[in-house]
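Narrative of accomplishments. A recurring question from our advisory board has been how the design workflow behaves on a single, concrete structure rather than in aggregate. To address it, we present the structure tokens for one chain from the evaluation set, followed by the sequence designed for it. No filtering or post-editing was applied between the two.
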């Protein structure tokens, strides 16, 4: 089975939906923070950091599986930005 045909986990789906909802290409941290904001005014401790890293790892896996792709590399002013690939759109439609 090709990797972009693998079933989506809840985190896979949430990240793809967040990227799709961004209204255009978005940076990985912009997408991840929408799913793991933390409490307003609360310190962001080890649990929050661990969840951020988990979501970033999942995002990288989506990239490796061909479901998201870099559309503009980082420069001195902005980080890399990503968008769903046709495979990413198809995965969300399943």
């Amino acid at each position: 089975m090709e990797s972009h045909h693998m079933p989506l986990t809840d985190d896979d789906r949430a990240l793809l939906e967040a990227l799709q909802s961004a209204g255009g290409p978005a940076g990985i941290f912009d997408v991840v923070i929408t799913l793991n904001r933390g409490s307003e005014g609360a310190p962001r401790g080890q649990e929050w950091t661990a969840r951020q890293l988990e979501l970033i790892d999942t995002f990288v896996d989506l990239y490796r599986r061909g479901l998201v792709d870099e559309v503009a590399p980082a420069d001195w002013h902005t980080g890399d930005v990503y968008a769903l690939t046709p495979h990413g759109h198809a995965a969300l439609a399943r």
